Amino acid sequence: MKTHIGPALRLTLALLLLLSAVYPLLVGGIARLAPGGGNGRTVSILGKTVGYADVGQSFTQDRYFNSRPSAVGYNPAGSGGSNKGPSNPDYRKEVQARIDTFLNHNPGVHQAEIPAELVTASGSGLDPDLSPAAARIQISRIARVRNLPPDLLNRLVDECTEGPWLGLFGPEKVNVLRLNLALDQLK
Amino acid sequence: MTNELLGIALIYGLAVLSAYPLGKLIAAVYAGRPNVMDWMAPLERLLYRIGGIDPHRRMNWKEHLTALLTLSGVWFVYGFILLQTQGSLPLNPDGNPSQTPDLAFNTVISFIVNCDLQHYSGESGLTYLTQTAVVMFFQFVSAAAGMAALAVLFNALQTQATDRPNNFYVYFVRSITRILLPLSLVLALILAFNGVPASFEGKDTVVTLEGDTVQVSRGPAAGMIAIKQLGTNGGGWFGVNSAHPLENPNFATNVAENVSILLIPMALVFALGFYLNRKKLALSIFLVMTVGFFAVLTPSLTAELKGNPAIASLGIGQPLGSMEGKEIRFGAAASAFWGISTTATSNGSVNAMHDSMTPLSGAMQLLDMMINAFYGGVGVGLLNYFIYLIIAVFISGLMVGRTPEFLGRKIEAREMKIASLVALLHPLLILAGTALASHLRVNAPQADWTVRPAGWLSNPGFHGFSQMLYEFTSSAANNGSGFEGLSDSNFFWNYTTGLVLILSRYLPIVGPIAIAGLLAGKKYVPESAGTLPTDNATFGLMTFAVIFILAALSFFPALALGPLAEYFSLP
C-alpha cells in the first residue's frame, strides 16, 4: 500500500489538471465557434432575447399553441418529470382533469382525437416540442381566438414541422416557441 | 413509427460498426503493439514521471488490486472534502450550497465506483468546480480503472508468458489518454455544435413570450456529458440527465449519445478476441450478449409503443405510444431503446423517466441490471460475464464428466468458491436492501427522520415497491439510473446505497482478478479432443442458460411483487 500512495497522489494531481482544467477549457474554447457560442442557442426578436431555442416555455393562453404539461411548470432553473407510475390512481385523475380542461378550451374537439402527448408531462419538464398532431388539434381554437382562417394555420404548422433526422430517423416535431413566434408574425 | 424504428436500428448498427475497429485498437493499446494513438506517448511519459511510476515494472494480481484500491482511497478523501466545502469555493456562479455529510458520502462513492446515483440535482446540488473537478474527473478515472482491471484479466488469460505491459498504472493511464479522452473530445464537440452549453457562464435570465421571467441553468456541460456516456458513468449535468433539452437537444445528439453508451462495452468484447487471438471466443460472447440484449429490448419496446393501458382507458389515443416522462424529439422507441441500453451497460443516464414507463419496461430494465453483463459497464461488464463463464464451464464439465477447463487451465474448488460468492453477492445486496427498506416503510412509517419512510414513495401499491427495488438494484449494478420519484436524498438511502455501492463495485473486480491470477499460476494444459470447447454455440447456449437461471431464480419473486404485479393489475 505504502509504495502506491505517492504515485496515486501525484498521478491524481496531474490528471486533475489534464481532465478537469485543460479538457473543459479546450471544449469551451472551441465551442465559442458553435451556434450560440457555447452558451446555448437563444432566439431573439428585434434584438430582444425571447428564449432558448431548445428549452421549452410555458404556453397556456388560448391565443398560443399550448405546450405539453410540465411537472416543473417550465422553470428552467431546474428540471424534472412527474415520476408518476402508470398504475397510479392519482395520476389517472390528473390526466382526466387535463382532458377536461382541454375539452373546455377547445369546444368541438372529441375526446378520442386528443393525442396523449398533449395531456402527459414530459421527462424534462422543459420539452420544447409538440407532435404535429398535438399542434393541429389546437388550430380551430386559435383560429377562433385570433380570427384567422384555419387553412393559414394549417400551412403554418406544416412550415414549422421538422421531419425525421436526415429524412429517415426519429419522430417529427414542431418547436412550440418557433411556431408561436411565427403565429405572432402573421397579419 | 417506421422512422422511429429506423432510428434505433441506426443507433445499434453504428454502435456495432464502430465497436469492432475500436476493439482492435484497445487490444493493441493494452498489448503494447504499435497503434494509431502512439502520438500520446510523450504525454504518458510525462504523467508517469510526475507520478513517479516505472511503467516497465511488472505487477502480480495482488499489486494490481492494491494500486486500484489506493487510487480509490485518495479520490474518496479528495471528493468528500470538496463536496462538503463547495459552497465557499470558487466557480460557483449560482451560489449553490455545500453538500451534507451523508449526501457527500453517497455522491463521492457513487462517482468513484462508476455508478453516478445522483441523490442531488446538478442545477442546485453542485458547483461548476465540483461538476468538473470532482464529478467529471471521477467519471474519467473510474471508467479507466474499470478498463484497467479488465486489461489485468486479459493479460492473465494468456496461455504463455509474454513481455506485454503488465502494470496497472500503464493500463489506467493509456485508457484515458488513448481511448476515453480522445473519444470524449469528439463527442463533446458534436454536442457543443448542436447547442449543448460548454462555457462557464452562470444562469441566464429570460422573459418568455407569455411574459414570465425565468432563469435558465447552464454551464460547461458538453465535456461532462461526453465522458458520462462513453465511460458508462451516466451522471448528468442537469437533474433530468439526457432528457434535458440542453443535455440532449435533438435526435442527432440522441444517436451520438446512445451509440456512445454502447460503444466501449461492445468494443471490449472484441478487444478480448484480438488481445488473446481468440476471435471465435469473443464472437460467441458477443452473440450471447446480443441475444440477451434483444430479448430484454423486445418486450420493453413493444410495451412503450403500445402505450399505457390506464391512459387508453380514459378514451384518448396514444398514436406515439406511452408519452408520460418522454420527450417528443426522441419518441417512445428511442426512449425504450435507451432505457435498455443504459441498464444493460451499467450506464444509468436516461433520456426519459423510467419511473413513468410501462411495467414491462421497468421489469426489463431491472432484469438488465440484475444480470449486469449484456455488454455491461466499461471493463466490469466483461468481468461479470467472466464469472458466469466460470460457473458455466464448471457446470457443463460436471454434466458431461470432463475436468472443467477454461483456456487451458483447470477450474478447481477455490476458483468456483470465489465465482459463486461474487455471483451470490448481487442478489444478496439487492434483496436484503429492498427487504430492509420495505420493512421500515411498513413498520416504521413515522420514524423520526428528516424524510419519514411514509414520505419516501411517489407512487402507491406495486409500483411503490418497484421504486425501492429499482434503487437497490441500480446501486448494486453500479448503474445509477433510478425511479426518480423515490425521495432518496436523505440519511437512510444515502448511507445504505452508499455501502451497497462499495461492496458491489470492488468485490466483483477483486473476485475475477483473483480467479485469473490463480488460473495464471496453474500449469497450462494444451487443448485436446477431450477439452470442452468454450467458443461454440452449445457452450454459448449453456452460458445463456446459466445467466438466465441465476437471474430468474434469485430475482423472479421480487420482480413478481413489483413490475409484474403492476402489469397484471392494469386494465
Q: How would you portray this structure in words?
A:
The complex is a heterodimer of chains A (187) and B (571). Chain A contains 6 helices and 5 strands. With 187 residues, chain A is mostly helical. Chain A has 2 domains: 1-39; 54-185, no CATH class. In chain A, strands 3-5-4 form a 3-stranded antiparallel beta sheet. In chain A, a hairpin with a 2-residue loop joins strand 1 and strand 2. In chain A, helix 5 (150-160) packs across helix 6. Chain A is extended and about 80 Å long. Chain B has 2 domains: 19-276, no CATH class; 380-569, no CATH class. Chain B has helices at residues 2-31, 41-51, 61-85, 101-112, 122-125, 128-156, 168-192, 221-230, 251-276, 279-306, 309-312, 331-344, 359-371, 380-400, 413-443, 461-476, 491-520, 537-569; strands at 204-207, 213-216, 405-406, 409-410. In chain B, the strands form 2 sheets. A two-stranded antiparallel sheet of chain B has the order 1-2. Chain B has a two-stranded antiparallel sheet with strand order 3-4.
Question: How does the SSE layout of this entry go?
Answer:
The complex is a heterodimer of chains A (187) and B (571).
Chain A: H1 2-31, E1 42-45, E2 48-52, H2 89-105, E3 129-130, H3 132-136, H4 139-146, H5 150-160, E4 161-162, E5 173-175, H6 176-185
Antiparallel strand pairs in A: 1-2, 3-5, 4-5
Helix pairs in contact in A: 5-6
Chain B: H1 2-31, H2 41-51, H3 61-85, H4 101-112, H5 122-125, H6 128-156, H7 168-192, E1 204-207, E2 213-216, H8 221-230, H9 251-276, H10 279-306, H11 309-312, H12 331-344, H13 359-371, H14 380-400, E3 405-406, E4 409-410, H15 413-443, H16 461-476, H17 491-520, H18 537-569
